[in-house]
Amino acid sequence: MAPKYKVTYFNGMALGEPIRFILSHAGKEFEDIRIDLEQWSTLKKDVPFGKIPTLEVDGKTAHQSVSICRFLGREFGLAGENNWEGLQIDAVVDTIQDLRIAFADFMYAENKTVKAQKKEKLINETLPFYLSRLDEQVEINGGYFVNNKLSWADLYFAAITEYLKGGLEDDFISQYPNLKVLAEKVWNLPRIKAWREKRPKTQL
Amino acid sequence: MAPKYKVTYFNGMALGEPIRFILSHAGKEFEDIRIDLEQWSTLKKDVPFGKIPTLEVDGKTAHQSVSICRFLGREFGLAGENNWEGLQIDAVVDTIQDLRIAFADFMYAENKTVKAQKKEKLINETLPFYLSRLDEQVEINGGYFVNNKLSWADLYFAAITEYLKGGLEDDFISQYPNLKVLAEKVWNLPRIKAWREKRPKTQL
Hints:
Two copies of one chain form a homodimer.
Chain A: E1 5-10, H1 17-25, E2 30-35, H2 37-43, E3 54-57, E4 60-63, H3 65-75, H4 83-107, H5 112-140, H6 152-168, H7 177-187, H8 190-198
Parallel strand pairs in A: 1-2
Antiparallel strand pairs in A: 1-3, 3-4
Helix pairs in contact in A: 1-3, 1-6, 1-8, 4-5, 4-6, 5-7, 6-7
Keywords (chains A, B): Transferase
Pfam families (chains A, B): GST_C_3, GST_N
Enzyme class (chains A, B): transferase
């Protein structure tokens, strides 16, 4: 029997969307549970390490979004053909994570002045640093991050890019031609396209 | 022919030590390159994404410390028996990473007042939050993080614990009996013990 998947997250893209992208691209049905803050205050204590997203597979629960994505990538043949290729894919995702953490540090800063300073640094230093290097990597890898073919790193990147665009309210990716083409290529994969059309619309 | 490994990092534990732990425990020889800040200013531009540690395997270079550790864990049979077990191991390491990032946010804060505030929050909230849950996980998994046996998550944890202890100048782990026993068990694995005796001594 096919495994039953259930994704639990807030009603947003952020850390949940890469999981939904990978499941969708693999053509897997999944329960897309979206909780509000009131439900979260009750649920929080029952969730491993008090954090979402979680993935349930046949009733067993896992946490940590990137670990979940890698698990699904391996399930669906998107995690490289050997251990070294798997490492290259993982390193791309960890690099995108470094960028995402810098983004979150800006996005969720409480003090307005501090937030503005963080945004300036993000736009002028952090994004160009990472994105120029990632762009070059895609250029030399045939339009994908690793070894001239689609992997879960590409799906992860395209999902996180939508979230960052929503947070920055800026189409920052358009300055990086190879990344832009890659993101659009992923967004237009038939099952990803169908998912993006039917999913609840959110800014983040 | 056995692969040739070369680890390049600063003269410290931090993000390099988990790699050195895993290679040591697997009984692999490796070149342990430790560079100073002057060398780093020259080397930085030639390194993928301008960051270390890197691992060279037979002349091919990889970056991202956790991705490298996972690769080595898989090479040496320390990454779980199946995909789900691999996910559990990855989720532990990502949780330790969340803690390590909160630690780094304190440790490398430039403003003294801010640093003191961050330290207080780290000691009173962040460390207890993660460590109490990790301690419980070790308790219910037979003295290891996952499935009653040693994995690269245990080695990762023991190496990072030494780094955090050095930074906090506090034996914080002693308040968590299961974690304390696990860390000491790893430190006393014969090849880890031998490595810790022969490695250059550093606080971080």
